[in-house]
Amino acid sequence: MNTLDDFLKGHPSAADLKAVIAAVASACVGISRVVSAGAIAGNLGSAGQMNVQAEEQKQLDVITNDMLSDSLRKCPPVAGFASEELDTIEATGRQGGFLVTFDPLDGSSNIDVNVSVGTIFSVLPAPPDKLLEERDFLLPGRRQVAAGYAIYGPQTMLVLTLMDGVHGFTLSASGEWLLTHERVSIPKDTKEFAINMSNQRHWAEPIRTYVDGCLAGKTGERGKDFNMRWVASMVADVHRIMMRGGVFMYPWDKREPDRPGKLRLMYEGNPMALLIEQAGGEAINGREDILDVQPSALHERVAVVLGSANEVKLVRNLSSV
Ligand code: AHM
Ligand code: MG
């Protein structure tokens, strides 16, 4: 089996970009170890502080954020980075190269109950020859040059795209990433959807109509029975879709009418949308491709509907009537 190093050596991308991927991948090996050590290392539970989004930080949110930040600081082509757990950007002082945005431990409400969590990252081009500012990060997802996630589940996997399809690597016992899933492809049709159903009463009409259609089953208009899954870790829910298809939704809802959705655009929506598109699926915020959304703030939120192309198309059509 090829290792990630072999894969990167043979890849036509620029050496600088490959160095960024290697830096993220190496941090994820360390993150996998601290996540799996759990209570043995005394790392579970709250850190006793809030992040910039007024969410309680877990100890592991803070630890994994530091691990990924350290790895990126040491990686010469990285001009700066931004994280779900940091108020603003960090500039490394270097110019040119790349910007990285990340969620170091997505789904962290699941850590204390030993359910899969993950790291999500997005790589953007850095502006040449200028002092880095937050607004330099505000590029639409189409400008990404690479993206990926690591999932810390029964197996630890790294799933990434360098703009030529999606490839999955499994972490071996000796700490090497081995290429186990080449050219991941998402089936266009599915009988599986993922949404937090407890929010049903708050959704807008198009999502209600779509989910009602799934729930109506064989005798309804869709003429087939659907199954539902919700891990409450975006990485795990998206990974399932990568492996066997499905549709994942975290839509706008009327509890917070001024917020487009719960998930964050720059380090959740965009990287996942790129991976999904690269694997043959679609990713929208309702009407528009997520990758076309022009960000206006680092921690901005986005509604997310992604996965098997034909299901996402149905939601898009319902949203445009
Ligand atoms: P987080 O980045 O604070 O962990 O929140 C994002 C997570 C996603 O992984 C998941 O899809 C969603 O929140 C679950 O939300 P809910 O608990 O509302 O179902
Ligand atoms: Mg997250």
Q: Major β-sheet, in short?
A: 8 strands, mixed
CATH top level class name of the largest domain: Alpha Beta
CATH homolog superfamily of the largest domain = Fructose-1,6-Bisphosphatase, subunit A, domain 1
Query: What is the SS-derived class?
Result: alpha+beta
Radius of gyration: 19 Å
Helix share bin: 25-40%
| Number of DSSP E strands | 17
- The neighbouring-strand order within the major sheet is 4-3-5-6-7-8-9-10
* Terminus-to-terminus distance: 49 Å
Strand residue content: 15-25%
Please explain how this structure is put together.
- The chain is of the alpha+beta class.
- The protein folds into two domains: 4-181, 2-Layer Sandwich (Fructose-1,6-Bisphosphatase, Chain A, domain 1); 192-319, D-Maltodextrin-Binding Protein, domain 2.
- Helices cover 29% and strands 24% of the residues.
- The chain contains seven helices and 17 strands.
- It has helices at residues 4-9, 15-37, 59-73, 205-216, 234-244, 265-278, 309-319; strands spanning 46-50, 56-58, 78-83, 90-91, 98-106, 117-125, 146-152, 156-161, 166-171, 177-181, 192-194, 227-228, 247-250, 263-264, 282-284, 301-302, 304-307.
- The strands form four sheets. It has an eight-stranded mixed beta sheet with strand order 4-3-5-6-7-8-9-10, sandwiched between helices.
- The chain starts with a helix and ends with a helix.
- The model has no long low-confidence stretch (mean pLDDT 95).
- The structure holds 2,5-anhydro-1,6-di-O-phosphono-D-mannitol and magnesium ion (MG).
